[in-house]
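Running this now, will post back.
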Amino acid sequence: MAVREAERRYGPFGRATVKPYSSTQRAVDGGSLLKFYVGVDPEGRRQREAETVWRAAHWGLSVPEVLATGRCEAGSWSVFRMLPGVPCGVRTSRAIEEYVGHVLDLAYSIHRSSPGVTPGPGWSGERGRPTPQHQFLLGQLSPRCRLRPWWAALAEALQPLESHPVVHLHGDLKPEHLLVDDHQLGVVDWEASACGPAVVDYTDVVFHLVRDLLYTGVKPGSVPIDLITQLPFSGPALAWRLLLWLDRRRPQDIDLLVARDIHRLATEEHAATGYASLARAVSDLRAAGVPR
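Update: finished.
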């Protein structure tokens, strides 16, 4: 199906909401969403999201049905049926507690380790030659990072993740991607789905929560660290996630962290101390002008 036909069948669609890696338009009747994939590997992300949503639905998860999907001159696109529900929030301590609780409940459902699944993007696990878990994570950083003085230390710090089971990951469990409808939890935006160590999902949750609070003006010392220490912690994964964010910002931002900053975070063994260090680092980077 061509995108014009999809627009006639499921539209009309309203004004576009443009983000760094996607452009979305809601149908006027609120029943569907047209999504264009832009930036990094748009076609790969389109295929990955459509396939993962299909698999997640067969597991009994509440996910948006793919009504149509394809690739054309306008780009890679999908139309999803809208899910009911209200996105999780982080404005109050209670909201954060509820968000973390939903993450833990969801993780119980999706963090499955199946025979033959190997690290990499998507849930299919069909990748040919297996990639070590730490290499899969390092491969998400741009080639320029290999020239940075912290690269070797980060690569070494991530190697212990090889002992972790390879599980299915959502890859982007932001509060707005979890929709609460009465007692049902809907989950959207599966384009970053992957297979790897479960701590990657938990670390992503912590990173988004800390960063978003700081970028709304919360001081580092006021970040509710005690509410997120129940999530599994990994210093190396936290250092990697911070670098992944900087790598996808302005070209010069990746050089705002030096090797000792990465080493300090990667070797931290205590969740509370590690999350507090993350909050200070992100606050300093915000002050240096790094965009959210």
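The first helix runs from residue 3 to 10. More later if anyone needs it.
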